[in-house]
Protein 1
Amino acid sequence: MIARTQKQQNKLIFFLLFLFSLFALSIIPIFRIVHIQGLPTGDSAYYHMRLGEFLISSGIPDNDPGLFLKKNYSFDPFDVVLGILGVSISMHYAALILPLLLGILTLFFCYRIFLLLLHSKKHTFLACIFLVTSPIFLTTFSEATDLCFIVFLMTAGLFFFMQHGKKRYFAFLFFGIIGFYEITHSVIAILFIILLGRHLERKKEVIEMSAFLFVFILFSFFLKHTSIQIQFPTIVLFFQTFFSDAGSKFGFSFFALILAAQGIQHICRQRKLPWQILFFCLFILAATVFYSPIYAFYLLPFVTLAGVLGFFSLIDRQWKLAYLRNVTLFLFILGILFSATSVVAKIARAPPSPEIMQALFWLKDHSYENAIVLTGDKYTSWVQYFTERRVLFDKRIIQNKENQALIKEIEALYANRHLETAIEFFEKYQIDYVVIFKEMKEGEIWTNENEGLLFLLQKGENFKKVFENNEVSIWSVEY
Amino acid sequence: MRTEWNYILLLLLVILSLVIRLFFAFSTPYFSDDSSYYQLRHIEIIKENILPAFYDPLGFGGRTFIFSPLFHYILALLTSFGSLWYITKLIPNIFASSLIIIIFFLVDEITKNKNIALFTACIAAFIPIYFVETVNALSAKVICLPLSFLFLLFFYKIQTKKSSIVCLFILCFLIVLDASSIILLLGLVLYLFLEKIYGFQTKKEEVELIFFGLLLSLWFYIILYKGALFQHGITILWQNIPQQLIDKYYYNINIINAMYHVGIVPLIFGLLVICYILFRNPEQRRDNIEEAKQYEDIRKKIFPVISITIVTGVLLWFTMIEWTLGLLYLSILLVLLSGYGYMLFHNYIQKTKIRGWSSIIFVCVFLLFIASSVLPTFYYTAQRIAQTITPKEVLFLRVLPVIADEDEIVLSLVDDGHYIEYFANRKTVVDSNFLQIPDAKQRIEDINTIFTTYSKIVATKIMNKYNATYIYISPTVKQLYGLEYLNYEDNECFQLLYTGEVRLYKSTCKQQKQKRNPK
């Protein structure tokens, strides 16, 4: 009887968690469908949507078909998944629903992993709630980018790695797919496997899986010529990268971090903090700061688990000012929920807007098929997707250090007020249209209308403004 | 001296300080800074509508500005009992004078010596920067500063339930009142660290209260400044003040500046106490157990004050807080420490051969205090009062609504923005609240161009950019730019409408506005 009740309780917890995560993750897609014509949020999503469509209709390309400058296309399994789903329900809906599905599956796998680590349903339930309400989780599973797919693969791989028998071999499949992405993900997967393997006392399986992933890393190094570009951000940027409340896209809530600090203090007091976890967190922190902010996601399980321990340590603590206990816990819950809601509100209203879509569709209808477009690197994905025209460069080309000369050339063009020099550039790259977004004029590239290319566009005889709305202005170039 | 006499003298000191303050405050019918008029406008709005106006239709041609309205509610409530002008001059000075009583009790709590406490209260009554900044201005600081130190007084007795509740209440009140309470909280966090470093047993109540305070402030400020945080990130600390003006609000403070604004006596004795408490080795007092215990007790009591002093000093050093705010905190903290400093000095004199001269030494210290604190206080206050907006300026601004329509925008210097908004009730291109203004830097540059350019075309373009119709030239503009008339005045595009102590130009050449959407 008791066992039955326990089972029912577990089911109820699981059901509640499922409902809550479905609710939290579906707010953004529903808002976008109702208010923003079903346009997926973010810019990278449109890159994957375009390539997903292309892969399904024309197979794997040698070069990125949306770029004028040649850039090898590196195969991304996420594009295939998105493309397949996009064929069945439209591409826009696919880009809205796929992250949601991956988020719920990731949460399921995390629930099982946390249960193994925390040994308590109550703790695990709270950990999952913290996970779903964390800004970084909400951001990752709101945008159709490869990150949500990689995180799903990672958690699925770890879940199957925990299993016994033949099920365990599924882990090879999931970790194998991670090998298609940047090697840092594979390195992190190895570190996760070592940590989990140590906890489960499975030395043999750890060696097997690590060796398997190591082969992928070597493959990446020698065949894909992978190189790591380290950057040194300022303290201000570091702060902005790390805290969602300070405007970061992949940051943590201040409150979650305070709870985590409380949890770490609690673990340290009990002398239970293994040095391997410290090393792991430092590695990810370094990757986040010096490489890319997206790696902050891998700190999330640790922040969540430490947060749960911190929360329960506050409950169990003997408070001298007893009347402060409940208020403090309430403040934590409010703070965490507040961070989550502000991130949801921010992402839900994020561009592209219908006005941007309208402008880019206009360009699609009024330009010839081989036209080449120049725009800011942040906006190339939208331009490529909506106009179906090639752009000169995108941020993937800019990130490559081999293209330094081109970057300098573009920077010079943006600052240049000499008509001849500008025309020379446009002729060289056969550019037909210049698409200027509002943010480019408001500090991103120019601060006022008399600066550089913006001045030339308005004054030069070779340029004609062919379209303008509140978000975008389009100029045609003649030479 | 008998205890009752101490209290009588304290009362006399408070009355004397208040009378001097009111003498200065009522010597002019106006406030001495423009931001007081921003506060006054919001007090009046609350009195009229009960709700605060987070949408300001006048500043920057109309903008949303989020702030904590508690201070405005307090003043609105108090001014409902009498004349607005009279009460807004009186109440801030009463609040500011209450600091003298709080300092007396705080020093008494630390030193257990009422005479020393009275001497320190005397110093507190004439802290130059505190006096100057609070005598004829309307700012939340006049409530925030005395309350912060009242909090400290109850913080010492936190183990009693009554004190802990009062502490909690004051803390919550301070957090909602003004963001400067974060200095107090950061100082208390440092205090917990210092206690750990020096091996003191930390009181659980203190940890709980500080932890709660930090959480509450974080939560409250994130909610309040959410938009600004998303827009400016960590640079919100500098309130989006354009680089051209940043030196006015945030500049590197040095010891000479500190002497001017704090006074020599509190500065010397305060620094002496910091060194004595932080660096003196208690092991030296092992032979005298009672003295060692007494020293440890005092050290524990002084740690919170020193911690807040260090935090304020560091924030000032790294220009992370406005220099006036930092110096206000720093000066009061140093005065507080100087009480114990004087006691140490006095005790030391008693152990030397010149102990017979201690009364003469006291007189010397007192004279030094008068020369370095009281006289500069009067001098700087008189100077500040002289900088107050003149009746002629106010008279003109009150007439401005007759000249300018309700929707017309006036271009002026940043310092004149709130004056125009309050007295003339007209829209401005800039005022001193830059938070969440994306083009703040550009606006300052453009205003600078308007007052310096010789080109009528450039000036017209700027006026059209901000949809501004009038240019207001105040005595400050004349002084700052050495300007009597605009360089491009021609009666064609810029008509001089009014001339006198102030000047007003009307821009008449409108460029045809570009249509945003050709469709």
Protein 2
Amino acid sequence: MRKPFFLIAASILTCTNANALDWRGNVSSELTYFPEYSVGTENWKLNTSLAAEVELTQDFADNIRLTFHPFVRWDQQDDERTRAGVRELLLSTTGETWEFNAGLGTVFWGVTESHNPVDIINQTDSIEDPTGDEKLGQLMLNLKWFSDDFGEFEAFLLPQFEERTFVGENGRPSPGITVDPDLATFESSDGNDHVGYALRWANSFDVWDLGLHYFDGTSRDPSLTPVVSNTGAVLAPRYSLLRQAGVDAQGLYGDLAVKAEVIHQTGDEIESHAEAVTGIEYTLVGFLSPLQENEKLPEDWCTPDTRNPFKKLACNDRLDLGLVLEYLWDQRGTDSNQPFQNDLLAGFRFAFNDAASSDALFGIVQDLDEGATTLSLEASTRLFESYRLTILGQKFLNTTDDTVFNAFENESFIQLDFSYFF
Amino acid sequence: MLFRTLTLSAMLAVAPALSAQTPEERGLAIATEGDARDQGYIDSTANMKMILRNRAGKESIRNVRIKSLEVEGDGDKSLSIFDEPADVKGTTSLTWSHSQKPDEQWLYLPALKRVKRISSKNKSGPFMGSEFAFEDIGSQEVDKYTYKYLRDEDFNSAPTFVVERYPTDKNSGYTKQVVWIEQDRYLALKIEFYDRKGSLLKTLVASDFSQYLDKFWRAAKLEMTNHQSGKSTTLEFSDYQFQTGLKSSDFSKNALKKQR
């Protein structure tokens, strides 16, 4: 059903000359190293992967736009990750106070940094990005109406459900037991064709941004049950139906942002419960500049061409430090099907404000119930104008007594990504 | 006719100085006149090429499209759409500057489809890694400084007023700025920026002015030199257009996601 639709879209994109075709995309190469062998799955420590994606936009007349965002990936170890697909194929029309979108689209809801419980429209493409930031396109009809006084109202009709992606039997990081998508079951007798809907209102009040939403449809987050199949023990995903109401709010007081996301979920198969993420982000702009401005230090102690690496860092008055502190909670406690039930995140975000737009984010997530600690690092810098080098690492510690993370004991990894952007 | 208007208004600004005007009053009068002459542009668009140079002279380039909307009785609204470097292509920032309260600012990150409201308190931070701070490229409202007229002086053989101005915002990275304002057209030709220690930090020189709609003067080139780091940034503006029919709704949070 969807395939001919692409072809039509592609031919429209290539033969219109009225407005120029616009694009952004990248080709990326990725190298991942796991210092330990995995438990259970096939043994390997090193993986390479290549990928490409492009987002094409074409305007027709003043207020009609078509967006097409295909991607392709090849993975050395994980056959499930070798694939091609479409993240967006969306037709949009806009008026002065309204907007209508139809097709495969992506929307983001949320304000917090560690995890976004309110962000329920799109499915997580967890095989693409172990941090969970990548999303799959969602088939939707979306109508938006906005006014200066009353904010923004949105309604979504979601005619098809996308299942979550999981690493294959050779994929890592893996919980040691493979999720078999072929064994997926649904509470709805319509399965993937169950029609969901969502409503959202968002508005700003002085320094506060507030959003409210209601969602009725298939849970994006399946429960996983171990079953024995002819290939051994695997996990079978179960997609329940649920209703979710939620709030997201952010207040900006100068360099301090206060953030909260709260949801309540209920359904026949899932326990009625609340989840929340709340915290602050405080930015220290040029936080080392007092060292330069200090009159007690010799006038010329910071020379711009110093080769001393300590001085070079200490004299960098352009370096900003963002401090992130968030608390993650799930009323179901350790019975939750998601890992953040009573966890604390501390994050340190460095922005170098240099010509290469270098940045680095260190994060520590501590599970307060079961003791697991996750350390993460994500740092990137621009090379040769159009390339970006990113280093990503995750280290799982104190996993022994943790029901979710004990399977990840050997799954700490470090990843280098070198991408060309166009 | 044009000549007469210009001389007359220049004389009007100078004439009160001959009576009992303090240097502070005269400085403010010059800034107010300069601001008044740029009123009524309604909206404008331009392409901005930014050339960053390090001490060794190595260059790196950014291309940004800028759209501005005049707001009566308040600061302007502006959109910056990044085209280059390619890894930030499509990133868009929206600023609503205000004369009485802090500016409001949002950033759209296309890869995440996420609109982030960001702090506008970060005045002194570098804009896109350049030698321009956010406060140097923001809308220059008269209320954002206090003033003091220093002297008349020729700059590049053009008669100028030399005026000191002091940022009223305590988050500014500067203690003072010295501005050379051309007497004929009330254009800032050169600005010296003094850091929090009171030392000369940067010099900005504006050149290649063109007039649009017989009224609005815009520089095609701004050259900022950082004397302390040895780095410099050049901004080259092209394809200036005025009164293009942009609306307030083009500068809304919702429109932020739709720019290209």
